[in-house]
Every structure is written in C-alpha cells, then in structure tokens.
Design a protein that fits this description.
This protein is α+β, with helices and mostly antiparallel strands and about 110 residues long. Helix content is about 40%, strand content about 15%.
Length: about 110
Amino acid sequence: MSSKIETTAPLPTPAPVAKMISPNIPTPSSSGSEVKQKIAEGIKKIIAKQSNIQDMQAIDLSFGIDKATERVYVEVKDKATGEVLKQIPSKDYLEMMARIQSAVNGLFVDAKG
C-alpha cells in the first residue's frame, strides 16, 4: 500500500543562478546607466585591491629586540629607500619602558649586596 502526498501550496520559484552568486550582476532588465555604474564600481574595487597589493609589496618588515627592555619590535621599511616608515612599538615607548624598568629595579635593589 503506497500513500501519495499532495501539496496544495505552490513551490517557490528558484532565483536565477546569477543572482544567487552575486546580486550585483546586471540583468537584462537593468538600464544602460545602471549597468555602466555597476561596471565602473567593479573596476574601482579591482583597482583599489591592486593598489593595496602593490603597497604591501613596496614595504619590508624587520624584527628586532630592544637591548634595554628586551622587548620585540617591528620596523616597517620602504624597500626602495630602506627608510623606516614606522616602528612598533615606537622608540619613544621603548625608551620610556627602559626608564620605568630602571626606576623599578632601583627601588628593589638590596643595599647589602
């Protein structure tokens, strides 16, 4: 004995595959100016990503250990010139930490020995 299941509600119409992949793909119902605008936006995004990649290729990272504080630092350098663009943590911060460590060590030094 087999039973047949009947549905009274219509099945949902599937969305076009292009819309499921990317809702920004122009459709034939889009106006010419909308299509041009979407293409221009896509090109701008590609150019921005390419620019970011080129910027990342133009820098060099070097790691070191500050002698006074024994903390690790990173220098971001321009590959072409070797100029240090940024140091993390900054030299000022490392110098301040060295002074603090020196002051704290001076407080806890045993006078006897």
